[in-house]
Structures are given as C-alpha cells and as structure tokens.
Amino acid sequence: MKTLSIGLVGLLLTLLAACDKGSGAEVEKLADIQPNLPQVPTLPPPPFPVQYSDQSYSVYGLRKKLRNVIDTDVEVTGYIVNIYEPDPCPKGETCPPPRAPHIWLADKADEQDKEQWIRVGGYAENHEEIEKAIRGPKQKIDPESGMIPIPTDFAVGAKIKVKANFTHVSGTGFNDAAGLLDYRGHETLSGGRTG
C-alpha cells in the first residue's frame, strides 16, 4: 500500500511537471455563466414608525418590539377606532354582566382590520363609573392613593397618547397573545369628547 501511494504521488508530480513545460495539452475554457435570477425586490417601508419623535410607540411598533417591551410601562400614540358599549338589557330580564369598559386603538383613524387594533382596558371597573364621572365634577389624580381619574373624553376618531402597562393579561381580566394595554393615563391629542 505504501509503495502504491509513493507511485501515485510520483505520477502526479510527473504530470504536473509536464503541464508546466508546455506539454502541448490544450485547456478548454468553459463559456461564461450568466445566471438567470429575478430582480431583487424592493421592500416597502414599514407602514408606521416603531416610535415617534416623542418616544411613544405606534401600535405597529409596540407589536414589532413585543419581546423587548412586554410587561413594561409604555406610551402608545394612536386613534380610538372602537369603544365597547354593552348591549342594553331588556326590562324585566336578567342579563349577564357586561364586560369591563375598554377601547381599541389603531395607527389609522379608519383602520378596519381588527388584527391591527390593540385593546386598552383598566380605566374603569364598570360603565356606571364612566357615566358618573361624565356627570360629576372633573376628576384629578388623587395624590394620596394615586388613583387615576376615569377618562370622560374618549371618542371614536380621537388621537390619544396612552400611558399603560403592555401585557398579555390585564388586571381587568382581558388577555391577548399579541398584547394589550392596561391603562395608567392618557393625553388627548385631537378629537376628544368635551366634558
């Protein structure tokens, strides 16, 4: 086996030496290969920025950064696209209690795709509290308890900046794998209902 290996190495060296001396062997050049590939696609820019100049997130951005910001306090700027209103209970009938008050935000005021909405809850325990807050005097944050006033200016189409905890499960019993907002306060930027 050792003799065979030495013989093959010797033969190989002889052939290489012959090639170097111009043994007359012609080398055939292959044709240039021209790949036939599709054009590189132009990717559209993201539909909304992840964060605005004031460092608040868009709904798109919040979901894009889900792993980084879940279970943290955030600010989100968006439009109210829906406000939950419980179905009226006919007189004399016993109806199940309505769900806790909540609104839906989106990055566009006219967003129809519910997958692009994010739920905001935790600003009131029930609808009676909201009605009482609307009829009563304007509330302020209670410095002793830290109680946040119940919002009375929510209106569909209003642009707001919400301070909230971004979570999968809210303190009011809502849950969502894509995340939801547990309300901590807000600022109405445009279009809110007046008191």
List the helices and strands and how they pair.
Elements: H1 2-20, H2 59-64, H3 66-69, E1 72-83, E2 102-106, E3 118-121, H4 127-135, E4 159-169, E5 175-190
Parallel strand pairs: 3-5
Antiparallel strand pairs: 1-2, 1-4, 2-3, 4-5
Characterization of the model:
The protein is an alpha+beta fold and 195 residues long. It is 19% helix and 25% strand. The protein is built from 4 helices and 5 strands, in the order H-H-H-E-E-E-H-E-E. The chain has a 5-stranded mixed barrel with strand order 1-2-3-5-4. Strand 4 (159-169) and strand 5 (175-190) form a beta hairpin. The longest helix is centred in the N-terminal third of the chain and has 19 residues, at 2-20. It starts with a helix and ends in a 5-residue tail after the last strand. The relative contact order is 0.15. The model has no long low-confidence stretch (mean pLDDT 86).
Sum up the structure in keywords:
single chain; about 200 residues; alpha+beta; five-stranded mixed beta barrel; about 25% strand
Low-confidence segments, ≥5 residues, pLDDT <50?
none
Q: Largest sheet at a glance?
A: 5 strands, mixed, barrel
Strand content: 15-25%
Major β-sheet strand ordering = 1-2-3-5-4
> What is the tally of helical segments?
4
- Number of strand segments: 5
Per the principal axes of the C-alpha atoms, what is the gross shape? Answer: elongated
**CA-CA gap between termini:** 99 Å
H and E order: HHHEEEHEE
- Could you estimate the helical fraction of the residues in percent? 10-25%
**Mean pLDDT figure:** 86
